[in-house]
Amino acid sequence: MGGLNTSLYIGMQALEATQGALNATSNNIANSNTAGYTREVPQFTENASTFSSGLVYGGGVTLSGLQSVRDEVLNLQIQQQTSAQSSVDAQSSSLQQIQTYFSSNGSDVASAFSAFSSSLAQLSANPSSAAVQQGVISSGQNLARAFNSTANGLNNAQSAADGEVTQTVAQINTLSQQIAQLNGEVNQLTSSGKDGGTVQDQRDQLVQQLSGLTGISVSQSTDGEVITTGNGSVLVNGSQDFGLQTSTGANGFQEVLDSQGNDITTAIQGGQLGGAIQVRDQIVPGYLTQLNTLATQFGNAFNTAQAQGFDSNGNPGQNFFTVPATGAAAGISVAITDPALVAISSDGSAGSNGNVANLSATLTTALPSGQTAAQSYASLVFQVGNDTSSASTESSAIGQNLLALTNQQSTVSGVNIDEETTNLIRFQTAYEAAARIISTVQQLNTVTLDMGSGQSY
Amino acid sequence: MNTELHGMIATEVEDRNGKLGEYLEHLQSMALELERSMHAIAQHSLLPLEDSIANQQVLATRLSELANELSKPKRVENTDAPASGEEGLMENIRVAADRLHSLNQCYATLLKHSSHSIGLMVSLFRSYRGQMQEDPGTGLKQQTWSCQV
């Protein structure tokens, strides 16, 4: 019933509950700048009411706990966008490095083609000059070196991406271990009726970091979070983690294996790992193929033109370039060192420069690819530039999206100091008004006691 | 004259009893409002708290008026005056006043404690110099520091 003891009990509970609520607010403000902190709100349980003399008396409230404000769907979106951005960033970073190998610096392939063309023009004008003949060989060597250097740059970028695969897998395993451990702690806390908010915050932070390393899928089970890679390979199941492995594949690069030993390299999408694999297995090989094709087709075309003429010794022209069957760009070299071996003459007679036109035509005639050598190379440069620019634009777009999602998450889970302060000030104003009423009620008590004293006249 | 006086006294007694009844009801309502306020404070529910305090202000004003009127000396004709039933009402009022008094003490303690904590929090917030979080949306942006003042 609504007796005095009940009222006092309600008051005591109110004191405890208020203290808890203020502690939560205090904790919220203290962590307003803590990355990944999730705002906690006090949860109150209303006690049973009592009915007496036609009146309902409240039973007070109990602070049943603190609950973190989370939006799991939003978290999931952020994880996905983080994965996508990390992947694009990894690609963008590699592409920016790759772009430097294609930049016009005087020793790049385009400049070397131009210099080679000039040397052939000079040869046409001075076919008997040994110096000019030597110039053709030198510029041919520079062209070969430019191919070598660009190919080596691409190979280095590929090796760097391969190294990143190994490093990222190690980081994924470390994070998976930590997340599994925190899953266990969250389980323990929640099963004992405690709020695991802080531990969940830590876990969410690590899950987000993990999503930056590789594309993941997060679901809930009775044991806690289950985290899998995009293809479904389990990384974490409750308090257990399942590490990925790496193994050297037939191509010399690291394959990514799941805990069962299955090769999941091609299934990895997103995150730094996905980005590194994309660079290593798709982007760089694509550029290398085009560069190798250009080196092979141009080298063969020039050798064919050489074979059509005669050198200064009257012999049929021999191969000018050595073009390896595989890795042409990295291995192409000039086969001759003697200037006299340049097949200038079309008929073997001294002073003839009839074959120079054939040699020069290799630079202006379309190769089997359908484009001239310079056009083929320009296409490749354009593609590298375009890919670099696209990756940068995509990264920027995803970044904007991620920022919007993070802002939205802050609205849901973050601490709004203005809102908290406004509420506190309203509480303060209400308390001041209440204090005046308390004073009035105290005076009333004295008056009421006097009221029954039976003053009369 | 005696009949007239009897009539006046009877009216006065009736009026006084009416006021005592109203006073009792208001004391009980005030007690309920104090409980409601404590409940709202515990739940950190601003609107119910503000609503309850507004009710308390109305009740406190009316209770003060009634207390003033009821404290005035009453007219007594003689010992054989008709039974007014005032004693029974006064007993109920004393019980209600005691309960309200104790509740009021409890409420005062709660307010003192909570006001102190809120005061500290307000100081903390006002002295906060960290980076403010900008929430999206015009509605939330209206809650600025200047708006509080």
Written description of the protein model:
The complex is a heterodimer of chains A (about 450) and B (about 150). Chain A has helices at about 5-30, 70-100, 110-125, 130-190, 195-215, 270-310, 330, 355-365, 375-415, 415-450; strands at about 40-45, 50, 55, 60-70, 215-220, 225-230, 235, 240, 245-250, 255, 320, 335. In chain A, the strands form five sheets. Chain A has a four-stranded antiparallel beta sheet with strand order 5-6-7-8. A two-stranded antiparallel sheet of chain A has the order 1-4. Chain A is of the alpha+beta class and about 450 residues long. By secondary structure, chain B is mostly helical. Chain B is built from five helices and no strands. Mean pLDDT of chain B is about 75; it is low at about 130-149. The chains are: A alpha+beta (about 450), B mainly alpha (about 150). Chains A and B meet through helix 1, helix 9 and helix 10 of A and helix 1, helix 2, helix 3 and helix 5 of B.
Question: How many individual β-strands of chain A?
Answer: 12
Per DSSP, the total helix count of chain B is 5
Largest sheet of chain B: none
Helix content of chain B: over 70%
Overall geometric form of chain A: elongated
Q: Could you give the count of β-strands of chain B?
A: 0
The low-confidence runs of chain A, each spanning 5 or more residues with pLDDT under 50, are none
The helical percent of chain A reads 55-70%
If you average the pLDDT of chain A, what whole number results?
84
Physical arrangement of strands within the biggest beta sheet of chain A:
5-6-7-8
* End-to-end C-alpha gap of chain A: 41 Å
Give unreliable regions of chain B as ranges: 129-149
Describe the oligomeric state of these chains in a short phrase.
Answer: heterodimer
Secondary-structure element string of chain A: HEEEEHHHHEEEEEEHEHEHHH
Mind telling me the C-alpha Rg of chain B? 24 Å
